[in-house]
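Q&A log
Question type: sequence-to-structure
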Amino acid sequence: MKVKIALLLSLSVLGILSGCKSAPQQVKDYTRQLPPGQFALRKITDPAQIPDFTLASFNVKDLRQAVANSLNYLKKPSSQKFYPSNGISHSHAVASLQKFAQLLDSGLIGLSLNSAIKDNFDVYISVGCDDMGTVLFTGYYTPILDGSTTRTEKYKYPLYKQPADLVKAPDGKILGQRLANGEINPQYPSRETIERTNMLKGQEIVWLADQFEAYIATIQGSAQIRLPDGSLMGIGYAANNGWDYKPIAEAMISDGAITRAQLSLASMIQYFKQNPDKVSKYTNINPRYVFFQNESGPPRGSINEPVLPMRSIATDKSIFPRAALTFFSTKLPTEKGGMITQELYDGFALDQDTGGAIRAPGRCDVYIGIGDTAGKLAGQTYQEGKLYYLFLKDYTSPPAQQN
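Response status: OK
Response body:
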């Protein structure tokens, strides 16, 4: 799962909607929900409003693999229950990705690929936060943290497996906690209760050396753990406790722990290293808790397929079509000579992930990669832009099979 940090903390980690230096000047409600019955996507019927895909069509690195990952997900029977989505059938989504894969396999790039896309695909735009297509793009990444599979004096802050008493619906929605008498408490315990009571003792998956880093892991939803022998252990999202995500940064600013001008992951880490007794005070503001599972290979998204840097995005999966082909246009940070600058970016990506703070058509998270550099760039990703979805033109669903 992608939940979402670094030099300037990304919105997906801290939930800041205003006040960041890199934030749009006009404050908008990027979390605005869709009106009842409205789709998150609107088909573009005016050719003049269809974006130019040329620049993105010159950059197809890893794109074919990302398409293959989405097709692998859509082969699974369980994927069919999430369709139709926005009027798009499951078979339509599959056919669209298969056609795009054919275009890539044919070797088309640049202007020729741009033309082929416009000839073969309808373009849909996210209605965004204002019904005019405005989407806030933030970034997320996979941190590398020091830890151990056994508890020691150094490694004493646990991350937990999915507990046996957590009750989930078939679609993954958290239904609550199964009690000893078989009844279901509709609210699973909060982060504060989980950590204070040690109620999940024996279900630890790994211990970390730093309490705030353990918090970061439960926000990001996945991590690479550097074990004492130097090897890496992957952990990925398994479930959450059903609580809504709440930010901690505003409380820290309000208390004077850090200033808004100082707001960065580095300043927060420094503060908590100097004030370790304050970690729980602030992290317990956020009642949401993520549970983990062992994960071999690359990090995976919520569709249980690998996420690739710049080729995987996280959206609200209750309103957007899973695994679909997207195109987005915004500004993203680039590091050159030790300096980070914001540059225009057009690119194709697959909708393969979701996140605790991604709950509206006006929000999208871009997967940046693994490690500190990715974290630094993810933390400075905070820009408005446009998000589009591409589906095959003139598609007719195949006839139902006869028994």
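Response note: The two ends are 38 Å apart (CA to CA).
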